[in-house]
Description:
The protein is of the alpha/beta class. It has one domain (10-230): 3-Layer(aba) Sandwich (Rossmann fold), CATH 3.40.50.1820. It has eight helices and eight strands, in the order E-E-E-H-E-H-E-H-E-H-H-H-E-H-E-H. An eight-stranded mixed sheet has the order 1-2-4-3-5-6-7-8, with helices on both faces.
Amino acid sequence: xxxxxxxxxxxxxxxxxxSQFVDFWMARTTPSPLAINIHGGFWRxxxxxxxxxxxxxxxxTAGFAVINIEYRRVGQEGGGWPGTVxxxxxxxxYARERAPFCGGRAGDTIVLGxxxxxxxxxxxxxxxxxxxxxxxxxxxxxxxRAWQLNxxxxxxxxxxxxxxxEFPDRYTMHPPVCPTVLIxxxxxxxxxxxLSRGFTGARLVELPGADHFDVIDPQxxxxxxVLSQLLPR
Length: 233
């Protein structure tokens, strides 16, 4: 049986909705680089930030202060497009403002996101210049292709509120304005690596044989390479 996910050190709300909050993971030494995490789950409400607990704990051990953000998702009032993106934008700004609370340096911030959270991280990368980097882990980096492949049994249609023909602008990904890295396993059968191979304006790191969850599992072999990419160089 998998061990229960570790618990954060504190929580604060950036909005009035129950899902508009962030969890703080205190740095072991201060000040430390700040990692802001955006969890995945095909943008749906039945998935929350809890499953990222092991990832957050591993980042603290590696020398980061960590803020794990929650946001409104499909199935919740205000979730989906554009509310989810607006929440993530607001949560990232809130997290950076409160970086000292958990021993983090707002001026040395990375944003990382997994799966659909990777898509949201790439949205942040397209509009935020002063980040050390954005790291999209097994991201839904090509929403149009995700729709064509029916990933998550219609997840893209649910999130964007329709098809690419109906809402082409919603499905369009814009190039990053800060250093951005996509990290994707070649054996990912949830979000195929082909989506990341077609993304322009970022560096792609492919992990041979890694699956969709290896990139956020500190016990997996490929996670060591993920961590090496996140650390300051």
